Amino acid sequence: MPSNTVRQTEAPTYRVVTYGCQMNVHDSERIAGLLEEAGYVPDPRTDTLAPADVVVFNPCAVRETADYRLYGTHGHMAAVKSAHPGMQLAVGGCMAQKDKDTVVARAPWVDVVFGTHNVGSLPALLKRARHNATAQVEIEESLVTFPSNLPTRRDSAYSAWVSISVGCNNTCTFCIVPQLRGKETDRRPGEILSEIRALVDEGVQEITLLGQNVNSYGVQFGDRGAFAKLLRACGEIDGLESVRFTSPHPAAFTDDVIEAMAETPNVMPSLHMPLQSGSDEVLRRMRRSYRSKKFLGILDRVREAIPDAAITTDIIVGFPGETDADFAETLRVVEESRFSAAFTFQYSIRPNTQAGIMEDQVPKPVVQERYDRLVDLVDDIAWQENKAQVGRTVEVMFAEGEGRKDEVTHRVTGRARDNRLVHVSLAPDDEVPRPGDIGEVVITSGHPHHLVADGGLVNLRHTRGGDAWQIREGSCAQPGVTMLGIPTIGAAQG
Question: How confident is the model over 19-46, as pLDDT tens digits?
Answer without folding.
Answer: 777 777 888 888 999 999 999 999 988 7
